[in-house]
Specification:
mainly alpha, elongated, 2 domains, 7 helices
């Protein structure tokens, strides 16, 4: 199937409403305008907004991956009698996904300590709800550094 869009002057007048009513069509339309070199016809304001949103989404996904990883490492450490292959799988999957995100967006490493700490604070809440172990028993700051979180051989005791 060919997703090529024919650009006409009538397409341009509906640019703003297209963004609001059919995002996919809007994206294809603007990509085609750029391919044709019709830069003055693109929906620049919404393109800028979408690019900024993509960056925020990458950061949020990284925080989410660290949250799941840290929570499972906490469970591994504080509930050693309940360790399972499922936890091992989850921990390794999160490590791999984090690596992929950082390969695609290496500049996210500049804020990695803040990202890990934000994930840890949220992981403590999830940990408490899932395990019924009061989060007050956990450290105030993340007990794991980036190198440990990234290391497939690291398993807290």
């Amino acid at each position: 199937m060919n997703n090529q869009i024919i650009i006409t002057d009538s397409n341009i007048s509906t640019e703003k409403s297209l963004y609001e009513t059919d995002f996919y069509q809007w994206a294809l339309h603007n990509a085609e305008l750029i391919r044709q070199g019709r830069i003055s016809d693109i929906d620049l304001d919404n393109i800028v907004e979408e690019l900024e949103s993509m960056g925020r989404n990458n950061r949020r996904e990284l925080i989410s991956r660290f949250l799941v990883l840290i929570m499972h490492l906490l469970k591994w450490q504080y509930q050693s009698n309940k360790r399972s292959k499922s936890w091992i799988s989850t921990i390794n999957t999160q490590r791999a996904e984090i690596r992929f995100i950082l390969e695609d967006s290496p500049s996210l490493k500049h804020d990695i300590e803040l990202i890990i700490e934000k994930a840890f604070q949220n992981a403590k809440v999830s940990f408490e709800k899932e395990t019924n172990i009061n989060k007050k028993h956990l450290p105030q700051t993340c007990p794991y550094i980036f190198e440990q979180l990234s290391d497939y051989e690291f398993w807290p005791e």
